[in-house]
Every structure is written in structure tokens, then in C-alpha cells.
């Protein structure tokens, strides 16, 4: 992670989240560890099914306890969450930690006004009157850039545009000044102009409140705009970690390189073909042995002894930087530079 004197506000150690299904056990998260300090933004990136959202729903305790087996440790400001009661988690959700979901229209109730929904969240955790809650809702709508908030507070979600609904969701998530904000692809359904406005809003609010943010996305372009540090997930595991600059300019894992090479370069020639990663993400019911990326990896044959298909590579983090890959450091530098050069031509 980014070098800082701060102690981690959120600390996750060897988290495993497995679901029971009719077809077997789904290993959605399989040994994940990371830290996050206050005022920092961690971008978690990966394809659908990589374990990003499951990780963060588990932090909030929003999982089916009857069908989910969880192991490891989640510490929020020193408090263990995995053993916390539902009553204690309800107290923490919205108050100390909160989440912005991808689909604001599906997350907001169509039967209640925007102001009522924001105000009820505030009342639940503070016990203030309805009048005070309404005043707070107007204040939050103003903070997130909703015009005429004293009038729009009485509107229903369908009366808001997509961008305004997402702003209202952010207002609801921040109404109790949480210290941890989890944003689960909050800009995916928005056009690029509104997306940029939402990103700027999150950065401004983080600066104002000192909030720790986990930003989940499949888009490395978004990560480049908002994150301090990046965690790349594949098949329920972390395959690479580092600062934003390190990961985006000098990837250490073939999967990260594949993600970068599948992105269009806004500053390059328009006729350059993109290079999608071949194959499909692994089934977490029956994941590949060894490195879970090896069936799709362009470099697996460069490693001696079939290690990629037989032995799980360990994630070794040194000064916040590392990757889970059997390639040597020299191989990574040589092959990745060559591969990146091929993609540019």
C-alpha cells in the first residue's frame, strides 16, 4: 500500500468466503489480505466473478449466514467484524461504514421520497426528530450538488436523472459521516461526463471527511482517476498489489497486463486493435489447479516444471508491492516489455 505513518483503519487477513450451492462449494474469495488507511482510496479491479463485490459485502456483513462459510479476520478500527452480532453490524452499517451500489434505481425505494430515505438513515443512527432529519437530508443533497435541494428533497427516485440518483445514493451513504465508504461500480451505468462529475464528487467529499474508500470496478481507466493503491483480483484471489502508478505503468502479473492491453488508448492511434484476454474467467466451483490464471496466460509455458498448473504462486508483498506469479523478476521485465511493445504495433 502507499507508504504512510497511519495505522490501517481496515485490515483484512486471509479472508475466505465459500458458498454452498446445489452444484457444490463456490470459493468466491480464497485467501485475501489487505490494509486500508483513513483518507486513502483502494481500487479493487477484476472481471466479473473475481470476488470483488463478495469481499465488500462480507465486510458489511451482507451475506447469507446459513449458506456462507467465512474464515479469516476483518478488523475495522480494531473491531473484529466476522464475529460481530447482526445488531452490532446494523449499528456500524451506515454509521461507521457504508456502501454505494451500482444501480441506484434498484437500491432506492420507489415508494418513498429521496428526502425520507436519506432522513430515515440519519434518524436510525442519531435518534433526531423528523424535522431535523429532513434538514440534514437537504444539507446532504446540497453537498452532493443537487440543485434546489429544499425542493428536490420531496421528489421520488423516478423524478431524478441517473446521475442525480447516484448523487442521492452518495448523500445517503455519507449522511452519518461514515469512516469507510465502499463504492461498488457506482459509475458504470452513467455517461462519461456524469461519471467524471461523480468521481470528482467522491474525491472532494473524501478530502472533506477524511473517509477511507474502497472503489470496486472492472475499468482500469476509472482506477487511474481515483485510486491511491490498486488490488487486482482474479478467481477469488489477489494477483497483484501496488500503488496506482506501479500497477498501471509497470504490471507484474500477466492478468494485469492483459487488462491493460484490452483497454483503448485515448491518446494513441484510433485504428489500433484491442487485445482481449483469451478464454473465460474460471469456474469457482471447480477452479484450475496452481495459478488460476494459467489456462489463459500467454506466459505459462515460460515457467519450468509446469509450476503454473500445479503449484499456487504465493503473493509476496514488499513495501506494499507484489504479485502472485511464478515468473522471475527478470522474466517479468523482459516478457512484459516485449509483449507491451507488440501491442503498440
From TrEMBL:
<keyword id="KW-1003">Cell membrane</keyword>
<protein>
    <submittedName>
        <fullName>ABC transporter ATP-binding protein</fullName>
    </submittedName>
</protein>
<dbReference type="InterPro" id="IPR017871">
    <property type="entry name" value="ABC_transporter-like_CS"/>
</dbReference>
<feature type="domain" description="ABC transporter">
    <location>
        <begin position="12"/>
        <end position="260"/>
    </location>
</feature>
<keyword id="KW-0472">Membrane</keyword>
<dbReference type="InterPro" id="IPR003439">
    <property type="entry name" value="ABC_transporter-like_ATP-bd"/>
</dbReference>
<dbReference type="Pfam" id="PF08352">
    <property type="entry name" value="oligo_HPY"/>
</dbReference>
<dbReference type="GO" id="GO:0005524">
    <property type="term" value="F:ATP binding"/>
</dbReference>
<keyword id="KW-0067">ATP-binding</keyword>
<dbReference type="InterPro" id="IPR003593">
    <property type="entry name" value="AAA+_ATPase"/>
</dbReference>
<dbReference type="Pfam" id="PF00005">
    <property type="entry name" value="ABC_tran"/>
</dbReference>
<dbReference type="InterPro" id="IPR027417">
    <property type="entry name" value="P-loop_NTPase"/>
</dbReference>
<keyword id="KW-0547">Nucleotide-binding</keyword>
<dbReference type="InterPro" id="IPR013563">
    <property type="entry name" value="Oligopep_ABC_C"/>
</dbReference>
<dbReference type="InterPro" id="IPR050388">
    <property type="entry name" value="ABC_Ni/Peptide_Import"/>
</dbReference>
<comment type="similarity">
    <text>Belongs to the ABC transporter superfamily.</text>
</comment>
<keyword id="KW-0813">Transport</keyword>
